[in-house]
DNA sequence: GTCTATAGAGTGATAGAC
DNA sequence: GTCTATCACTCTATAGAC
């Protein structure tokens, strides 16, 4: 008896975790089926394009989350320094202190799947620009803000890699704390 | 007519590139066969343990390269500031200005393959310690050196992710230049 | 004859597509 | 749940160096 009522939106978070944990290639349909509790039929009903379709849907959801929770405040908050500190806090929570990997970053390293490239680029471009805007408003000097934004994003991504590699849950929060000091003082 | 004489060491660089470009899961044996020009017989002759064996061999070669070219000078060069600058230069060249990905970092993000974990951790631990040592000798203060080494490695790894994501070959060299300024002045 | 490097047909299992 | 392609891997059979 089918019809347990699932919605596309309900399974996106699960899909995201599976892709994060196993990568795109490593996330097999049977694994996805097991984790979502859905048969292949349902999966192809929700995502006619198969696995790539699923990954694109997950990326779209991630983009939307970051756009409203991170990029928008960075661009619009009157208190730019606070927006930057909030970003670092949100990032620490989102990536569960480094226990959770950045799916967009992980896909960037393993491309060869060109379909994801524009979304991956868009995510990091939007983040860089939003942070640059906040840095300028926080008094960082328009000339230096761009480079600092770029370096900050690199450090966040790399901190996820390093924390994971060293199996040390203290690494990610520690590096974020250093970033905070440098960007907004304290 | 067999016997064209290949050696294990000769195909390691090719294997490294295939794993870098496609990831561990994405590097199929047929792809590996095509890229190395070797049949399965030869591949399994050199690497009886199959794909994992190949990846371990590549990681071992990478470790050795970094140990002699990067870690040793960092620990031993009497001129520590020069050793750090040399490290940044070597890294820029090794990763081909960001066009080439760090296999160790990429594997760290996609683990679930626990066999690689100790090697991955060893690589980053050795790098962190060597850089910390050089920073201390360059006058960075023992208390701060550790954190700076950690953050530097994260920034390098993240710069690879970001450069790749943005498809901008200028990103990686630009971030390395900022690192150099901060670490050894200029 | 033995050892090393080779090729590739053939194995069962499992992948993703539908 | 059925399909076909492809997966990692095994095995037998080679040729040439010693």
Intertermini distance of chain A: 59 Å
Question: Which structural category do the helix and sheet elements of chain A fall into?
Answer: mainly alpha
* N-to-C SSE string of chain A, H for helix and E for strand: HHHHHHHHH
| Biggest sheet features of chain A | none
Can you name the CATH architecture of the domain at 59-184 in chain A?
Orthogonal Bundle
In the predicted model, the low-confidence regions of chain A spanning at least 5 consecutive residues are: none
- Count up the helices of chain A: 9
> If interface size is counted as residues with C-beta under 8 Å from the partner's C-beta, which chains form the largest one?
A-B, 42 and 42 residues
| Assembly state (oligomeric) | homodimer
CATH topology of the domain at 59-184 in chain A: Tetracycline Repressor, domain 2
CATH homologous superfamily caption of the domain at 59-184 in chain A: Tetracycline Repressor, domain 2
Helix content of chain A: over 70%
Strand content of chain A: under 5%
Q: How would you sum up the global shape of chain A?
A: elongated
Q: Count of DSSP E strands of chain A?
A: 0
* Highest CATH level, the class of the domain at 59-184 in chain A: Mainly Alpha
Rg from Cα of chain A = 18 Å
**Mean pLDDT value of chain A:** 94
């Amino acid at each position: 008896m089918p019809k347990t009522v699932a919605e596309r939106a309900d399974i996106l978070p699960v899909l995201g975790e599976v892709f994060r944990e196993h990568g795109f290639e490593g996330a097999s349909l049977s694994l996805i089926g097991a984790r979502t509790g859905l048969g292949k039929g349902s999966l192809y009903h929700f995502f006619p394009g198969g696995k790539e379709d699923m990954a694109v849907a997950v990326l779209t959801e991630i983009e939307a989350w970051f756009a409203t929770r991170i990029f928008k405040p960075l661009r619009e908050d009157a208190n730019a320094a606070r927006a930057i500190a909030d970003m670092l806090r949100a990032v620490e929570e989102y990536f569960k202190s480094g226990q959770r990997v950045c799916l967009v970053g992980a896909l960037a390293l393993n491309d060869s799947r060109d379909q994801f490239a524009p979304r991956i680029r868009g995510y990091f471009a939007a983040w860089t620009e939003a942070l640059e805007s906040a840095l300028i408003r926080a008094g960082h000097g328009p000339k230096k803000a761009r480079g600092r934004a770029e370096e900050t994003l690199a450090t966040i991504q790399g901190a996820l890699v390093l924390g994971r590699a060293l199996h040390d849950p203290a690494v990610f929060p520690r590096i974020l704390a250093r970033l905070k000091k440098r960007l907004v003082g304290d």
